[in-house]
Amino acid sequence: MTTFDETTGRVAPIAAKHQRGRGYDGHWALVWQKFLRHKLGVAGGIVVILAYFVAAIPEFIAPVTLEAYNPAYSYAPPQPIHLGRDDGEGWRWAPHVNAYKSEIDYNSGRRTFVEDPTQPIDIGLFVQGEPFRLFGLFPTDRHLVGPVVAGQPFFVAGADRLGRDILSRTIYGTRISMTIGLIGVSLSLVFGILIGGISGLFGGVVDNLIQRFIEFIQSVPSIPLWIGLAAAIPSTVPPLQVYFLITIILSVLGWTSLARVVRGRFLAMRNEDFVKAARLDGCGPVRIIFRHMLPSFLSHIIATVSLAIPGMILAETALSYLGIGLRTPIVSWGVLLQEAQNVRTIASAPWLLLPGVAVVIAVLALNFLGDGLRDAADPYSD
Amino acid sequence: MQMSDNLVEIRDLRITFAGSVDVVQSLDLDIPAGKTLCLVGESGCGKSVTAKSILQVLDHPGRVSGGSINLRQPDGTVLDIARVNPSSPVMRHVRGADIAMIHQEPMTFLSPLYTIGNQISEALTLHRKVGKREARAEAIRMLKQVGMPEPERRYDSYTFQLSGGQRQRAMIAMALINQPRLLIADEPTTALDVTTQANILDLLAQLQRDTGMAVLFITHDLGVVAEIADEVAVMYLGRIVERGPVREVLEHPRHPYTRGLLASMPRLDGDFKAPLRAIPGMVPPPALRPSGCPFHPRCDWARSDICTHKPVGETELGGGQTVACHAYGPAAHLFTRTPIAAPAPVAALRRGERALAPLLTIRNLHKHFPIRAGFFQRQIGAVKAVNDISLDIFPGETLGLVGESGCGKSTLGQTIVGLHRADSGSVVFRDGGAERDLRTARGAEARRLRTDIRMIFQDPTGSLNPRMRVRDIIGEVLQVNGGHSAAEIESRVQVLLEKVGLSPDYAERYPHAFSGGQRQRIAIARALASDPKLVIADEAVSALDVSVQTQIINMMKALQAEMGLTYLFVSHDLGVIANISDRVAVMYAGRIVEIGTTEAIFRNPRHPYTEALLAAIPGRGQRRSGARIRLAGHVPDGSAPLEGCAFADRCRYAIDACRTTLPPLKGEKTHLDACLRSDEVQLRPALAQEQLAPA
Questions:
Q1: Chain-chain contact of A280 with B517 (C-beta, under 8 angstroms)
Q2: Are the C-beta atoms of B609 and B677 separated by less than 8 Å?
């Protein structure tokens, strides 16, 4: 048997290309290479990683704790940061904010805040503050950024009605808001893969019934249903349990789209030639599913999941905003936004919308990441 | 600028993709007015891109980066299309009104949301001021002209209501409604059945004669060229390598590439089992265009002192033929120009007498697919894909299975291999005295059968799991069916890779690293991994380019001789079937209508359907004579209840009895047919007098 020229390199340039070893790259390496070419997706990915990093250690990143308040700074606007100071001997590097003097205009009843340069508050990195336990384990009192002298007013993103730091509260809110999406989606994923897999694998009447059921669930207006379910949670339930109940409520509706994706993939994959070839090789159903089919659409599922998380985040925000989701003392972006329900408040204290900005950034980043992953999920198309 | 009788003159055209890669380089091409010019070449040679550049409809990263495309206007002036803004009114007028285009796949080209009449009259009203009623009348007249049955009714049809051939007719009508001076046809018949293809080619030839338009016909099939072309231009890697009148080029090909293409084409004259000569290698991507003459790495004549680095120019050969090859240029005396060597004959397996017991015996096999409807999936009918088929396959032979798409040939193959469960009948596999029925085999027996009967799929991309390494793909069957150690599997994979002409160290790679031809080799290695007796090749070479196809066919023949394989070769390509098969079975509407030795089927067909299939092979018919056999219509819907012969409605010999009695398969053992009138009518073998000359 001769070896054909096709492979002995008579077309030399092609053979040379193969030498570089791209052919040895597996599926995930190719997905990764393709994902890296999606610039927006990579940017989204970095933001998402940062967000989850913040969610993991808000105690360290936030300047003050959730409970810290300063009644004198009720509705105080963001303090501008000054990088240096001129103390007669020339300009000197000394990052600081200035304390506020508040003046009350008795005619309008409004309080205005004016910077007081005589009371500079030095700020720094890794400063001492309130003690906490990192990851609940390691006791420390260092904070990423804050006033050098603990307890001095530091409101770079403004304060709310009770004089609490919006920035710190938004950072703490990240933990709940970002994880509720993750946990909710994991629950949906279990339901989705299970039910979608059954639907796609068995087909026929089972498939028909499941699909009609999914259509029924999808046709139920979601907000009223959430409201109904959330209202059914007794007010005596501790906040942490409310959190879990809310994730379950969200995933009860969220699994349907995932189930459809999984079913569609199963159906399409079932008729792929390589699956037929595996059947002819004598593979049983379990081996076909786990060795041949599942790896083929795992990347698609990951992409779908990353696109489903934003929906969960938005749903939680909406519920909490309406006052039927999470409740204080648990802090999420939606809970924080409750403060900004009133147009007059927003007009006089727009910095209360900072948690809303966080929601927008998180959702956009996750969507970009999901888009990038979805494009990269099938790296063989070009 | 003086233009003779050329409608379009392309000079020094350069088309660049993604900023740097020249897909087309210094291309000169004249499209003569009122003639058909065929542009031939393998895929990746830049044929379609050239055609699209004439209409300025290149896909996104591509653009014309040099040269001129001069279109002669009716008033004598010349328009350089390459200099016109693609979205300018001038260009919009050129498209559709002056130059029209038809494509390979009309289903994606025509909108599914509008009736075809709607789309045809829109093409008309865009370019001419006509009223609604007038447009309708004109469109119906056009539909009639392109041979659409019932044009008035079809005017209001949607694309999904039409058959493939009818869609292609509708698209042609749409292209011709403005009486363009140039029609660009980009592989318009490639996706069609051979019988439909013959009809469309006839139609295009006739329309060309009637309207006097020029046609630029793009194809990879030299048979089609012989059928329709006045002139031929052969393209390789973005350049024209040879052009001239069709007879000159096909009968006296000069360029080694043209010669190679002709030599790799299965032939139906003389000994059609003669081994084919494949062009080595494959078309490299344009980014890796070899220096000097781009064809030199695949060329037998190539001289390392000239061809590898000296750019090649065109040489006029007289008789309107030009060729771009050093062997005809100033350095011609250095070349010997040996004729293409006949390939070493592939050792044929010494076959015993036909008295041998068949390897596989199929008796009264039925496979019906239920048609279900409604919420509870009630069965309302059945498609009889395989309908009462009886067949013997003898050890060591190749049985070819031909027929139009939808005739059930793939279903038959898949039922034998076990992808479908047959409804009734028996499939008995005989190996060393032991007989096993595929329909009742269980457990270890079924496992033995799975390893004894293997299958090669059509699409080499879809049939290899992209997530698995080549080693795991080939070794899967050994792993699953047990009894092999990892080391055994590893060494078996190495042996197999070498057998199919691939380097053993490719085992660690993934399928995406390979070309289509190489992937098909991997698929063949997988099929052979379990040392099978019978291999079912379902259109195994249909998705490949001509030269690669020939390489694979030759390799399959060699493997058959070496390993004592038996093939069931399913294909719609009669040339390939003739070349590889010992016996041929012709299928129509789920039944076998004729079966016999290759010689008998091709030289002495006894069923009118076989006759029509043979007559439809492009390039074999009497050129432009009215007395050719053409099939109208298509394979009947497999769910319709049928009495009598399924072919009767399309048969030109049919009598009343044909519609009521089902003809049985009868005749001598070496040649059976299912036609009531096979003894009284004299059928023509379609081996025409006018054949393509040997290269």
A1: no
A2: no
User: Whole-angstrom Cα distance, residue B556 to residue B550?
Assistant: 10
Report chain B's terminal Cα–Cα distance, integer Å: 39
Position A241 pLDDT exceeds 60? yes
* Under 8 Å between Cβ of B292 and B329: no
Q: Where are the alpha helices (DSSP H) in B505-545?
A: 516-528
Tokens of A6: 């096709």
Asked if residues B473 and B465 have their Cβ atoms less than 8 Å apart, the reply is yes
Interface contact A279, partner B, CB < 8 A:
yes
* Residue of higher predicted confidence among B641 and B242: B242
pLDDT digits 0-9 by tens, B256-281: 999 988 888 887 766 777 778 888 88
Cβ-based contacts of B510 with chain A (< 8 Å): 23-27
How far is it, in rounded angstroms, from Cα B291 to Cα B311?
8
Q: Is B544 helix (H, G, I), strand (E, B) or coil?
A: coil
pLDDT for res A159: 87
d(CA B27, CA B41): 14
Distance between CA A180 and CA A317 in Å, rounded? Answer: 10
Q: For residues B514 and B298, what is the distance between their CA atoms, to the nearest angstrom? A: 19
State the best of A210, A215, A271, A280 to mutate against chain B, taking most chain B CBs within 10 Å. A280
DSSP, residue by residue, B478-492? HHHT----HHHHHHH
Element (H, E) at A294: helix A294-321
Tell whether the model's pLDDT for residue A43 goes beyond 90: yes
Q: In the prediction, which pLDDT does A14 show?
A: 37
**pTM for the predicted model, two decimal places:** 0.80
- Determine contact: A37 vs chain B, CB below 8 A: no
B512 part of contact set with chain A, CB < 8 Å? yes
Distance (Å, rounded) from C-alpha B252 to C-alpha A294?
A: 55
CA–CA distance, B526 with B555 (Å, rounded to integer): 15
Report yes or no: B98 and B182 within 8 Å, Cβ to Cβ. Answer: yes
The closest alpha carbon to A177, from A246, A255, A258, belongs to A246
User: For residue A124, which amino acid is it?
Assistant: G
Q: Output the pLDDT for position B624.
A: 43
Q: Kindly report, residue by residue over B137-188, the tens digit of the pLDDT.
A: 999 999 988 888 888 888 998 888 888 888 888 999 999 898 899 999 998 8
The CA angle B32-B27-B14, to the nearest 5 degrees, is 125
Measured in angstroms, the CA of B391 and the nearest CA of chain A are apart by 22
Of the ranges B67-81, B127-141, B377-391, which one carries the lowest mean pLDDT score? B377-391
**Residue A228 exposed, middle or buried by CB count within 10 Å (0-12, 13-18, 19+):** exposed
Q: How far apart are CA A300 and CA A287, in angstroms?
A: 20
Cα-flanking dihedrals φ and ψ of residue B360, to 5°?
Answer: -135, 130
Q: Is the dihedral of CA B157, B162, B164, B166 positive or negative?
A: negative
Q: How many helices (H) and strands (E) does chain B have?
A: 20, 24
What is the 8-class DSSP label of residue A360? H
